[in-house]
Specification:
Length: about 160
């Protein structure tokens, strides 16, 4: 049993929720946002997979981080809801596969993160989980503001 088993289960559910939420975005609403300062709907969801690949995974592999440039590079962005959903699932499998290929003590290894901060692998992946959970909540609000019932989290999202 790995110290990250609970993380795999919990984060995997969040990722699948984000992917399902991306699939719900009507094609004509992908650039919709609730106010001028907000991220467009597709970018709100899509940027989490970009950061998973270009920030979290690179930090874990001790590769140079290309943040925040990775967010500006349009070739990293999904153009359709289906692409965003696929990017969610693919980047999760990439991250999970990398973590599962590491030795048992890898979770306790310290890695460099943004702004010179150092944290353990375990802290970094739970940070990513919290960030994705936050953005899942925002995606649910975007859906509800557009009359869409978001994917179920706790059995049902239907009122009453």
């Amino acid at each position: 049993m790995s110290v990250l088993d609970l993380y795999y289960m919990k984060h995997g559910k969040v990722i699948e929720g984000l992917a399902a939420a991306a699939e719900q975005i009507p094609e004509y609403k992908i650039m919709w946002k609730p106010c001028d300062k907000a991220l467009p709907w597709i970018k709100l969801i899509d940027h989490t997979s970009i950061l998973r690949r270009h920030l979290i995974l690179k930090a874990l592999k001790e590769e140079p981080l290309d943040f925040p440039a990775c967010l500006q590079d349009q070739s990293n962005h999904a153009k359709t809801p289906e692409e965003a959903a696929k990017a969610q699932r693919d980047s999760w499998e990439e991250l999970k596969g990398f973590l599962q290929s590491q030795p048992d003590d890898f979770a306790k290894r310290e890695v460099a993160f943004t702004k010179g901060r150092k944290m353990t692998v375990e802290q970094l992946v739970w940070f990513a989980y919290e960030e994705n959970t936050h953005h899942r909540g925002q995606a649910w609000i975007y859906a509800r503001m557009n009359g869409i019932t978001p994917p179920a989290i706790w059995g049902t999202e239907q009122p009453g």
